[in-house]
Amino acid sequence: MTACGSGYEEGVLNLYPPADGADSIKIQADRCSQESGGRYRIVTTPLPKGADDQRLQLARRLAGNDHTLDLMGMDVVWTAEFADAGWLVPVPSEYLGEVTASTLGGPLETALWRTPDDDREQLYAVPIWTNTQLLWYRKDTLRSLGQIAPATTWEGMIADAQKSLAERGPSQIMVQGRQYEGLMVWFNSVLASAGGSVVDPDDPNKVTLNDTPEHRAATVRALRIMKAVATAPGHDPSLTNSDEAAARLGMESGDAIYEVNWPFVFSGIRENSAAGSVPFLPDMTRHNDFLTNLADPPTTEQLQQLVPINDEIRQKFDFAAYPGAGEGLRARSTLGGLNIAVASTSQQRDLAFQAAMCLTSEQAQKFYSINAGTPPVNRALYDDDEFRKTYPMGDLIKKQLEAENAALRPKSPDYQAISTLVQAKLSPVGAWDPEVLVDQLADAVTKAINGEGLIP
Question: Which residues pair with 132 in a beta bridge?
Answer without folding.
Answer: 335
